[in-house]
Amino acid sequence: MGGSFAKAFAAAGVEVFAWNRTRSTLELAMIETVTGELDETTIPTCELIVLAGYPASTIEWLERYAALVSPGAIVIDTVGVKRVICERCEALCEPYPFTFVGCHPMAGTQYSGFARARANMFKGAPMVVVPPEMDDLERATVLERLKGLLEPCQFGSFTLATAEEHDRNIAFTSQLAHVVSNAYVKSPTARDHRGFSAGSYKDLTRVARLNAPMWTELFLDNADFLGEELDTVIESLSAYRDALAARDAERLEALLAEGDRIKREIEGR
Amino acid sequence: MGGSFAKAFAAAGVEVFAWNRTRSTLELAMIETVTGELDETTIPTCELIVLAGYPASTIEWLERYAALVSPGAIVIDTVGVKRVICERCEALCEPYPFTFVGCHPMAGTQYSGFARARANMFKGAPMVVVPPEMDDLERATVLERLKGLLEPCQFGSFTLATAEEHDRNIAFTSQLAHVVSNAYVKSPTARDHRGFSAGSYKDLTRVARLNAPMWTELFLDNADFLGEELDTVIESLSAYRDALAARDAERLEALLAEGDRIKREIEGR
């Protein structure tokens, strides 16, 4: 995610300073993409800082470097949960003259690493923005500036949300999708289906491949909402299973027709 | 499915006779794509007959018209279950001098209808073929002829399977995918997630939109294998739910890492 931001800004001719916990990745980025290292010297020169790490490391970065961030700068994160992040990061920034704005780009692939990062990763994608408590005028000003700074990323839309709205929705649209996909491949049949895999299998299992430590952290930070979604999908699946076990054609067709109708309604909005 | 076959053959200059239970669809096809109607007069002139209907209507067609099929012709179906179809259709054809070969193209989209049919629908897709009991030489001859006749469809590969192998695999790669996708959108959050939908949600729910009567028939004809897959996925999902409810990071990460490893293994084969 950080690599794609770096590539998008660099491609637009914006000067980028970067840091990565893996030194060789940072060195590769410095040859290919970025101007230099993000450190005590360069942090105060940045107008926008993108913290593209795990939840805990995002908070740690701010604990360590908040005092060095330039007055008026905007710091965003890209973490997939917002309640823990925004609460903690907004509190950390309180004493300083810069603004923290929780962000979550609705983009990415099942791959990770700088080599898979792309300058056009965010092109057309929605960006969810969770601004801190502030008056309407101040918020509008910050958001206009943030949009301007993010222009090289070519986001398709900006969605404002509270941290709670974000976390409830993301539990459904992203976290649940990863759990279901990851669970799907655990069937004993999974290893034995060569020549039988149509598009539906490929789509269902695309995100089965995932970064387990990162998603564990994200899931635990959103355990209440994700837990509800998991209960719901297990309950829904059990209804089909029961109808099938009872060979109840009418019930099974009603369940399928209901899902079809909901999906059409969502698409039609 | 039938429309895509008609368009593929017509695009290759092959003469096509067609039938559809909806007269207006047939009339549209006769203007755009096909030479004429498949009826008592034209059935005996066909070298290949593709029965692209529901399970019950496929069997009914053969009951009614088997006596008219030309000696040496090949009749295939495209039904998504093979045990019921092959057993019944092979028995129906027994007295006649043509060959029935159960088929299932691993292709299609979430849309149906002649307008959505495409001449290149099968290009590169696997075709699963379930040949009847016959000696090896006879089978090889029939398959070579079938491959030749299907050339305009440009299938990417032909996979031979028994009806049971087909049904077990298809329960996992296709039927389960449709149930899970259809169940996924039943969350109350589904109607309220605009601006939050990343690729993972879109992929997971693509086939939520489905033909409920057709899939009901297919699921009931494969209730044993699909029931097992549903039990397995519900059990797998429950393991994540329990680890999450217990805030058991180690267990949750192990479950996710296991799915990731299986998916990589499958991809790497």
Describe this structure in words.
The structure is a homodimer of 269-residue chains. With 269 residues, chain A is α/β, with parallel strands linked by helices. Chain A has two domains: 2-161, NAD(P)-binding Rossmann-like Domain (Rossmann fold), CATH 3.40.50.720; 166-268, Orthogonal Bundle (6-phosphogluconate dehydrogenase C-terminal fold), CATH 1.10.3660.10. Helix content of chain A is 51%, strand content 10%. The first copy, chain A, contains ten helices and seven strands. Chain A has helices spanning 2-11, 23-32, 55-65, 83-93, 136-149, 163-184, 199-205, 212-220, 223-245, 249-268, and strands at residues 17-18, 36-37, 48-51, 74-77, 99-105, 126-130, 157-160. A five-stranded mixed β-sheet of chain A has the order 3-4-5-6-7, with helices on both faces. Chain A is globular. The mean pLDDT of chain A is 94. Chains A and B meet through helix 6, helix 7, helix 8, helix 9 and helix 10 of A and helix 6, helix 7, helix 8, helix 9 and helix 10 of B. Chains A, B: It comes from Thermophilibacter gallinarum. Chains A, B: Belongs to the prephenate/arogenate dehydrogenase family. Chains A, B: Keywords: Oxidoreductase. Chains A, B: InterPro entries: 6-PGluconate_DH-like_C_sf (IPR008927), NAD(P)-bd_dom_sf (IPR036291), PDH_C (IPR046825), PDH_N (IPR046826), Preph/Arog_dehydrog (IPR050812), Prephen_DH (IPR003099).
